[in-house]
């Protein structure tokens, strides 16, 4: 895994969505008690498990949105003592998962000293966004994407049509999922009030600095 800051690691993985090569990224946070929170888990290989186990015990697995749950089950089986926190509504889609807590934006007592959380209101993502305060890192799943380009021409074409080729933003194809723009705008504005610099995202390149300005520009289309 790549270490971004003290107690913060990421691991990217290949992932296709409807034939598009958009990839995905897992984030691992080591909490003050030494336990680990795994955000948007990717496929669990033996090598990855060994890396994770070397930095601490996994006690929290987070499926943060409607689209980031594919590997939650295998992580739960590998770490039966961990709590599974899942997006609102995911229990209906993934009846195979034993969900312990439904994410509605409130901080769990185990991570309250490390992480702030916010439910992105007014959208169909049902995503809960995280702020790792010690590293000033915003951790998101689908709130923003950041692709320079793609060697896969269908993906490159999609990025251009979606308005996110060579610049961070939210795909035009995802904007209809913002059903209540006023409520969503309030959520984005609240996120922008947080003290962060880096944005750790699931799809594309990490935004290492200047995160608030990037996020603000990415959501100029969203009028409350």
Description:
- The protein is built from six helices and 15 strands.
- With 224 residues, the chain is an alpha/beta fold.
- The chain has a single domain (2-104, 113-218), classed as Ribonuclease Z/Hydroxyacylglutathione hydrolase-like (Metallo-beta-lactamase, Chain A), CATH 3.60.15.
- A seven-stranded mixed sheet has the order 1-2-5-6-7-8-9. It has a four-stranded mixed sheet with strand order 10-11-12-15, covered by helices on one side.
Short description:
The chain is α/β, with parallel strands linked by helices and 224 residues long. The protein has a single domain, classed as Ribonuclease Z/Hydroxyacylglutathione hydrolase-like (Metallo-beta-lactamase, Chain A, 4-Layer Sandwich), CATH 3.60.15.10.
Shape: globular
The main sheet comes to:
7 strands, mixed
> What letter string, H or E per element, gives the SSE order?
EEEEEEHEHEHEEEEEHEHEH
User: What assembly state would you assign to the polypeptide chains in this entry?
Assistant: single chain
How many beta strands in the DSSP annotation?
15
Give the CATH class. Alpha Beta
- Under CATH, the homologous superfamily reads Ribonuclease Z/Hydroxyacylglutathione hydrolase-like
């Amino acid at each position: 895994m790549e270490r971004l800051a003290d107690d913060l690691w990421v691991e990217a993985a290949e992932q296709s969505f409807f034939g598009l090569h958009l990839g995905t990224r897992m984030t691992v946070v080591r909490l003050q008690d030494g336990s680990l929170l795994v955000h948007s888990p990717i496929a669990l290989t033996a090598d990855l498990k060994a890396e994770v186990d070397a930095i601490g015990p996994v006690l929290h697995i987070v499926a943060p949105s409607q689209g980031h749950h594919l590997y939650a089950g295998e992580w739960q089986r590998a770490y039966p003592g961990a709590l599974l926190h899942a997006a609102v509504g995911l229990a209906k889609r993934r009846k195979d998962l034993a969900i312990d807590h439904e994410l509605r934006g409130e901080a769990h007592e185990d991570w309250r000293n490390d992480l702030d959380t916010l439910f992105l209101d007014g959208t169909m993502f049902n995503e809960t966004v995280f702020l790792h305060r010690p590293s000033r890192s915003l951790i998101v799943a689908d709130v923003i994407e950041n692709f320079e380009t793609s060697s896969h021409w269908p993906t490159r074409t999609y990025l251009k049509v979606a308005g996110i080729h060579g610049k961070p933003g939210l795909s035009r194809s995802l904007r209809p999922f913002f059903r209540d723009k006023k409520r969503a705008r309030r959520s984005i504005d609240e996120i922008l009030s947080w003290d962060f610099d880096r944005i750790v995202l699931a799809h594309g390149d990490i935004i290492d600095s200047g995160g608030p300005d990037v996020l603000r520009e990415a959501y100029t289309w969203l009028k409350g």
